[in-house]
Model the fold of this input.
Amino acid sequence: MSGYSCLVVEDSPMMRQLIVFALSRIKNMTVTEADDGIVGLKKLATDRFDLIITDINMPIMDGLKLVRKIRTDERHKNVPVIVITTEGSKEDRERAMALGASAYITKPIQAPQVIETVKELLKL
Amino acid sequence: MTARNRKRQVSEPPADLHAERETFVRNFLHKGVELTEDLIRENQALEAGVRKLEDDNSRLRAQLASNDAIRELMGTIEALERERKSLLTRSDTLEKAFHQNEARQHSIEQELNDLASLYVASFQLGGTLSLRGVVRHICELLEQLVGAQSFVVYVLGADATSALPIGWRGVDGSQLAPVSTEEGAIGDVWLTGVARVLDPVTRGDSQAPLAVLPLTFDGGTVGVIAVNKLLPHKQAWAPVDHELFKLLSAHGATALIAANLYEREDGVRSALQDVSQHLDETLQPSAEAKRAETVLADTRLAETKVGSEP
Done:
């Protein structure tokens, strides 16, 4: 039985736990957590993922820089990326999408919204 | 006339009689032929009539059979119509049940999501004894789970009449000053210990907070959270927001006090020092309780004595 793996890059432990909870409701989903962009990149260097969820506003390396790095990496350039941010502004959404994000979720996040977006991107 | 002539006259028919006989025979035969032809024609006509009747009969039989088939078909159509109506009714019932289930599923999903938010909030709030960590979790709870854009967390100051800001988002921290615990919305909440939440949400400013939440400990208010602004796309409070406020009110102050006390300790071992002794002390009845017990026993004794007197 094949499963899916997801990398969650989020500096807030609370948000990370909520996202992990939402993802745990998708069958055969394995989640790897990273608390900033740098740790996320290290995980990407050693593992392959079917999906990446990243916060935009993070210290050290923000989500937009991470998306740019992912899209220039031959190994991960086709992996769907969902960005999460506090602001629901159109500019932020457009910036993230222009960099290659596949979908956009605004805070406060709702588990059904996360599940629906993930299922849509993974065609589940 | 002689006898011979007379005899000849009697035995031989006259010549015109022959002709007459021949005419008669010819006519007779002719009429026979005509009669036969008439009979043949009549026979043919009758045969045609019979054939026609047979055709009619066949047609009528076919029609009768066809009518039976039509009646049968009509019966089938009626039965199918009944079945169709029954299926439609069943389909309507199933559709209603489906919508009900869908609504129920949605409601369960929402409830699950709310419970997850409460669980995560509680888990994170109680999961640290770092004072900065607790303040950060309170702020994150308000920011990430409630969707507050601007808020300030105050705790009771040393003078007991003012509250000091210890955490905030969406405001300039350097501009924040202690607030009175006896005035305005904060004063009201401080006094009553009851949250004041504007519902429906109006776009407020720091002068009129959208929500003021008490942080309570041991029956008293030891802090407040003033929520001034929500995220632009959050138009109304969600039911879970009120539950999160209750959680913050009940556990926020406890987490802050515990974390602050822990700051004075020299690590976990120091913090856990004399735990058994303290537990024993709390299990022992206090001197006051002992006194009350003695008074109660004396009263019962006196009542018994009065009751036993004749």
